[in-house]
Design a protein that fits this description.
Number of helices: 7
Shape: globular
Number of domains: 1
Order of helices and strands: EEEHEEHHEEHEHHH
Radius of gyration: 17 Å
Length: about 190
Amino acid sequence: MAKANHAYIFSNRDFIAVLNSDSKEIIPQARLDRLETLLEILEGVPNKQFDINTWGRPDTDCGTVACAAGWGASHVALQKQGLHLVKKKDIVGDYFLEIVYTPKSARDKKVLAARFNGVSTVEHFNACAAFFGLAYKEASFLFDPDSYSESDPSRRRVMKRIRRFIKEASKDRVKLHQRSFNSYTEPSMFKW
């Protein structure tokens, strides 16, 4: 029998798993290459067209407005890998954009199916988590406006957090995850 909070860790090409007596959480291998591509995309986005509070919306004054993940989903480099925005209609008939991930490669399809009980497409923060190879809490930490201390973080602030996450995750992701993502809000070690 395992002691409380004792973690058993294993990894392979697709997953790092952290198992303990309190929960069973599967952490996928991070797709840091996709996060790097996202940073390159965000470099070209004008500040006035960045809004972390929306996946994406057309704006007649300044063109499309979107969050970090929304800009990624609107760029061909990430669309080719299955991340995209879909136009939907809400219950009152207004249109909005939703982020969706539908894997293109056989490997990505298998990983998604293993992680989400056989589904072939995921939406919202699950789409961000699956596409970038993140745990849900990590995706929320990077892309959810509620995870930032300020009410409307700038494009530069979001990019700084993504860069720092890439740097820390490339060192020791399991240790990073265990120390940092125990709460929904900004982890204390990440006061970036």
